[in-house]
Amino acid sequence: MALLPPLLCVFSSCKVLGLCFLTLYLNVAQANAAEHAGFNNHHNIHTRKLAAQANSTSCNLFYGTWIRDDTYPMYQSNCSVIDSAFNCQTNGRPDSDYLKYRWQPAGCEVPRFNGLDFLSKMRGKTIMFVGDSLGRNQWQSLVCMISAAVPQSPTQASKSDPLYTFKFLEYGVSVNFHRAPYLVDIDMQQGKRILRLDRISTNSIPWKGVDVLSFNTGHWWSHKGNASQGWENMESEGSLYDDMDRLVAFEKGLRTWAKWVDTNTVGTNTKVFFQGLSPLHFVPAEWKTTPASRNCIGETTPISGSTYAGPYPDQMKVIQDVIKGTSVYLLDITTLSQLRKDAHPSIYDKNVSQPPANTTRSSPDCSHWCLPGLPDTWNQLFYTALFN
Asked: What are the residue boundaries of the Trichome birefringence-like N-terminal domain, all occurrences included (predicted)?
């Protein structure tokens, strides 16, 4: 419904002063209602629009190429929330060209991230990333991107594992991260950690009532050995298992999560995203015909073109199948990230002046991402899906 025209009180024969005030009051009320309705309905409308774009031949936000752009990065490595393990420039990485690339989708443009616009549209609301350290990568990126736009605006930060919060006090906006690598619960039972494939109760407590949720999971499901996998037994349908096919377990856990989303967010104002699987770059044969190394060490440029020679992750096929038919928006960053073999911390996850940082290391970080860096693009796409 169009707003009532306040000029009627000036140019018409409006004789009752009370009617003028009533007209102005209704205008304000309608504007406020429109603002709230706009946020509540905007996501669903544009999720459908962007999904249609992504499935069309003319525009696909997640299919394209990386092009050089010297206006990047959008913030500097002195951003206070960046983990030292992700701060490649501070840790002595000598090259910086990996910071100068912009994602160019096929047939459309990604709007440049605007931190002030983000805060204005999210005023009074909470965004929460939930998942593993790749989700933390993205959370830190978003905080830095917003902070660069309002460097003098007061903030408040809290880190109390597993919940990390960052508040932009002037706008009432909270950008949070909740560490839950499997999404489903892990409980202690008789001194053993039990991965509950059929249950999300404890983990989900911080998620309730959040305005925007962005989930990720995947990498921890393939870790093996008690020291790295995070659990001793799995429980499914009342039975305990020492182990099972990890892809089967992953699907069981993800379907439990999808059921939680349907039960707790459908019919509410909560917007739900799922971040596609972030790729690894430990096998140079996937991007080189004659690899000179065993990992991502020394890689300084993206892969040209739009396709990656390596395999598409089986976990992504599970994710796509589970999310299909739900209200969740898939931020499908997998392939575009596969093209960025150059953007990992590699040996620069620690200061190079201190051991064991050196070019002969056998276990460089080819799974996380430098900040500033690739997760900034993830957040540009997140911003596009949320508001445009």
From this structure: 58-109
